[in-house]
């Protein structure tokens, strides 16, 4: 190289990495746990993390990514709030030769060269697990089962995929009817508000499928305020597995939780280091997750990590 800058560390692989991380927001218990995991892991790995919270707005994420490019960070990591509309800014990162690692949520870009790898859950699989539980629960029954669905943030990968995975499983049996489906933005407040509207507009609700725990917990309040018993009058299926949901499940208010692990920090830092070094990494790394039912809730609660 020459030039004699005297910077011995450069190129030696020991230089402290600076990573720009654009987080979705702080909409849920899952997200709070994810943020903490990423921040703790960066510290542990000696990585200088520039953290930016997008408050569930794509425009904020695009701004953050552009600012990371300007600051010439070593790697950009982000959890895209929605799936579409990233090609332009990702192309800018590519032109600046800054590798991008996706975590938690995916983008729908056709051009796979726009990011190095994607670490996160399989949301279609989660939706299917939710559907499988329901099919089993109503096995041998013939009466119609009316389902209301609280969707996650419109256009987000987990909302799209949890809806489609669930839909694919239940469409095999005509007794299952999704009578209402609306977004609750992955928040408690919105989950409660939309459930209140469902309870007013729907004469008979048998099952609530909530795309995350926070919406389920908000909906539980609405159901109780309407004089009904959550978990019994209305069965509840949720996704994530945060502690508050396990507490509600141990109190028989949620019937089943499909787990989605937010503790991705350590794995993410490992990947970032490898990508920076130019090592080959898998294009898609999935997290391993389970399903928990009411009868398992009390025993599982003390061991929950988030
Ligand atoms: O399920 C929800 C959060 O993208 C997996 O986002 C994540 C989802 C999670 O708001 O609680």
Automatic annotation (TrEMBL):
PROSITE patterns, per the entry: PROKAR_LIPOPROTEIN
Keywords, alphabetical: Signal, Sugar transport, Transport
Signal listed as a keyword: yes
Chief place of localization: other
One GO MF term attached to the UniProt entry: carbohydrate binding
Domain Periplasmic binding protein residues, every copy: 19-279
Pfam family, one: Peripla_BP_4
Subcellular location: Cell envelope
PANTHER family: D-ALLOSE-BINDING PERIPLASMIC PROTEIN-RELATED (PTHR46847), GALACTOFURANOSE-BINDING PROTEIN YTFQ (PTHR46847:SF3)
Protein's name in the database: Simple sugar transport system substrate-binding protein
Organism from which the protein derives: Kitasatospora gansuensis
Origin organism lineage: Bacteria, Bacillati, Actinomycetota, Actinomycetes, Kitasatosporales
């Amino acid at each position: 190289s020459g030039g004699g800058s005297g910077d011995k560390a450069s190129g030696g692989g020991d230089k402290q990495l600076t990573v720009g991380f654009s987080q979705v927001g702080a909409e849920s218990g899952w997200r709070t746990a994810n943020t903490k995991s990423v921040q703790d892991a960066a510290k542990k790995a000696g990585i200088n993390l520039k953290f930016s919270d997008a408050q569930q707005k794509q425009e904020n994420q695009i701004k953050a990514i552009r600012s990371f490019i300007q600051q010439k960070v070593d790697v950009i990591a982000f959890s895209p709030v929605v799936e579409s509309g990233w090609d332009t800014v990702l192309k800018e990162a590519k032109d600046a030769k800054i590798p991008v690692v996706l975590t938690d949520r995916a983008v729908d870009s056709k051009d796979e060269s726009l990011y190095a790898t994607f670490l996160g859950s399989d949301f279609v699989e989660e939706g299917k697990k939710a559907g499988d539980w329901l099919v089993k629960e109503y096995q041998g029954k013939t009466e119609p089962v009316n389902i209301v669905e609280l969707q996650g943030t419109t256009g987000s990968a987990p909302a799209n995929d949890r809806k489609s995975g669930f839909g694919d499983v239940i469409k095999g049996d005509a007794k299952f009817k999704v009578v209402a489906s609306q977004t609750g933005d992955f928040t408690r407040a919105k989950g409660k508000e939309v459930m209140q509207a469902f309870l007013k507009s729907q004469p008979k609700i048998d099952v609530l499928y909530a795309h995350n725990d926070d919406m389920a917990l908000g909906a539980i309040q609405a159901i109780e305020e309407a004089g009904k018993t959550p978990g019994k009058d209305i069965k509840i299926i949720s996704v994530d597995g945060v502690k508050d949901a396990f507490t509600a499940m141990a109190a028989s208010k949620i019937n089943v939780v499909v787990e989605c692990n937010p503790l991705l920090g350590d794995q993410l830092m490992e990947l970032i280091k490898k990508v920076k070094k130019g090592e080959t990494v898998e294009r898609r790394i999935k997290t391993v997750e389970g399903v928990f039912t009411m009868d398992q809730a009390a025993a599982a609660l003390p061991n929950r990590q988030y």
